Amino acid sequence: MEAELAGRLRERVVLLRQLSGAGPAAEAAGSWVSVAERWAMVEAASRTALSALEGDTRQTARRWRVTLRAGLVVDLGMRLSWRGVVLRLTGIDDDPTDPRLLVLVAEELGG
Fold it and tell me: Rounded to two decimals, what is the model's pTM?
């Protein structure tokens, strides 16, 4: 079962957090730093699955569903880097079919 899970997580993603505040890193405040690198499954998000998120607004950014192992502290203020593309997190949830997994919904910046 563990090998099956590992076989599904084939993409390398990096979670990023924005630096803030004063102190030794004050000159870098506002920059994004890597906080974790993990194996993940990345797939285009279904338009129907996202209809509740979109409401009546027109979305132009491409959306992605990113599945990775649970156990990380992830919040909507973070970003994700994947294949050189930076993604803004718009949703975080436990995978309802497998408690070992975390599902992130993300959209491309500048889309």
Answer: 0.78
CA dihedral in degrees (81, 86, 91, 94; nearest 10)? -10
Tell me the CATH number at 87.
Answer: 2.40.10.270
Q: Which residue blocks in 1-111 are alpha helix, DSSP H?
A: 2-8, 51-54
47 within 8 A of 110, measured Cβ to Cβ: no
Match 């500048």 to its residue by tokens: 110
Q: Side chain identity at 65, as an amino acid letter? A: R
Q: How does the average pLDDT of the chain come out, rounded?
A: 84
- pLDDT band of residue 48 (cuts 50, 70, 90) is very low
* Residue-number span of the structural domain to which 37 is assigned: 2-108
What was the pLDDT predicted at 46? 74
Sort 3 into a burial class: Cβ within 10 Å, 0-12 / 13-18 / 19+: exposed
Residue 58 tokens read as 């027109």
User: What tokens does 51 get?
Assistant: 């209809």
Q: How many domains does the chain have?
A: 1
User: For 56-72, what is the mean pLDDT?
Assistant: 82
